[in-house]
Amino acid sequence: MIVVTSEEITNSPRHVFGPGWDSKRMIVKQHGVGFSMHETRVSEGAELTMQYLNHVEVNYCIAGEGEVTDVVTGITYPLRPGTIYALNKHDLHIVRAIAGDLWLVCVFSPALAGAETHTDEGSFDLDADGQ
To answer: CATH fold of 15-109, please?
Structure first.
């Protein structure tokens, strides 16, 4: 059994920051479960453009209000507690936190090692063994 608390990840190497966001990588590659799970905060007013070319990501909103835009289709979807969205086609997307910080539970497959930050393209690189 794996038990991890948000508190123990805070300010550790698995608590990663970028402009307008921070992410606590709770379950990571070393845990061997085939995916990683993160507690992510997007700061109110932030607008993040991302495209995960090497990973599939699913996000579940637990607090705050925002929106996610599919750049290819131009469709914008509201995000509020209880909303889930999956970037199942490596979608180029924009996430905006509109009312309060947007809190998301994120799942990545393949799993992240834990300390990755976004590349200039808004993606995460695969590590040496392809994960």
So the answer is: Jelly Rolls (2.60.120)
Alpha helices in the chain (DSSP H): 6-9
Quick check: helix, strand or coil at residue 102? Answer: strand
Residue with tokens 């910080």: 101
Residue 125 dihedral angles phi and psi, to the nearest 5°: -75, 155
What distance in Å separates the CA atoms of residue 62 and residue 103, rounded to the nearest whole number? 6
CA distances (Å), 116 to each of 38, 43, 109, 112, in order?
Answer: 12, 19, 14, 7
Model confidence pLDDT, tens digit, residues 2-61: 999 999 999 999 999 999 999 999 999 999 999 999 999 999 999 999 998 888 999 999
Annotated domain spans of the chain = 15-109
d(C-alpha 119, C-alpha 127), whole Å: 13
Name every residue whose Cβ is closer than 8 Å to that of residue 131 and which is 6 or more positions away in sequence: 29, 110, 111, 113
